[in-house]
Amino acid sequence: MKQRPIFVITIGYIIGILWGLYFKPSIVLFYILSYTTYYLIKTFSKVKRKFKLLSFSRYKRYLKLIIDYQVILTITISSIISNTIVIFQNQKYENFYKDGEIIEIQAIVTSSKKEKQYYNLYQVKLENSRNLSLYIQVNKKEKLEYGDKIKLQGEFKKPEKQRNYKGYDDEKYLKTLKIAGRVKVNNLQVLAKKQLNPILQKANDINFNLKEKIEELYEKENASILKGLLLGQTDEIQEDIKESFQISNISHVLAISGMHISYIIMGITLLCGKLLGKRKTQVITIIILILYSFITGFSPSIVRAVVMGVLVIGAKILNRKSDVWNVLSISLIRNFNLQSVFDFKYRLTVIIFGDFWNSCFKTCYKRKAKRSFSS
Predict the structure, then answer these.
(1) Which of 117-126, 163-172, 207-216 has the lowest mean pLDDT?
(2) Taking 60 as the threshold, does the pLDDT of residue 311 lie above it?
(3) Burial of 274 by CB count in 10 Å (0-12 exposed, 13-18 middle, 19+ buried)?
(4) What pTM was computed for the model?
(5) Could you tell me if 134 and 182 are in contact, meaning their C-beta atoms sit under 8 angstroms apart?
(6) What is the DSSP-derived secondary structure letter of residue 165?
(7) Checking DSSP bridges between strand 179-192 and strand 114-115, what pairing results, if any?
(8) Whole-angstrom Cα distance, residue 35 to residue 20?
């Protein structure tokens, strides 16, 4: 772990965020109590010479090979920083608006519409509040576009907290997305068009045109699946179809992830590898991956996969060996939410077994090579 400082910082970063989401007191108090207790026990405890098979002190020297004081200090500092950020954000959310309050705000639409049964749902970014967004529920007759500057009046609704044990907590999830709550819109006025970055506007136009083409060429059911496979938009897929994918253990194909990015990399390599050469193909691949993340709307799963792909390819261009733990850490720390925790657990298991079998294969191959060379 000492050789992977980014991985260590990421562990502390995640610990601080999770502590801030689930506990109100600062993590600083926890560290003070923990370190004080440790030093008191170490100072006043008497050393016993009795043999214990499962004694911590007996195996302490092995643990020091993985974790030392520098690692602990790094995790402590990074977790305190991330926890402090979460605490300030929580205070910002608490003092934002009261539940049921009628508010009047100006905002910019930052997402395409999500069609619900009785309304359309949009994400908007507030002008006066930096880095905070809202979900707005708009009448289906109202037509909004990406980049519209709007003035609205409506009823603010705070996200619901967790009701049942291990149930879905809408409040914690929306906080990780920097969304303060929802507004049921009563009055709406469009003030201006295309108020966002021109590059983002163009990428959204391409995304919209792709969706229109898919809807024209395929039936509604097939079009919803194809939009999930290509653009990562699974809102329109019916629940029974999603359940069928889950039963078949292939639900991950509906959310753009490393599998999709690896297919893109393989396709570009096969098409351009022999024509342009290795180095130029890698540069083109990075450009296409970045453009793809623009087109698909920068969802967390897409950005994580693209960041990992760009880092691995960039290391090859610079003739550097990419470390899978550092690559995973950078992609995770760039886009962290509650879903990332489960993705991280899954990827961590895959990486552990992958590294284990890879090292075993390399060891066996080297032994066979030595034997054949000596004979």
Answers:
(1) 163-172
(2) yes
(3) exposed
(4) 0.67
(5) yes
(6) T
(7) unpaired
(8) 20
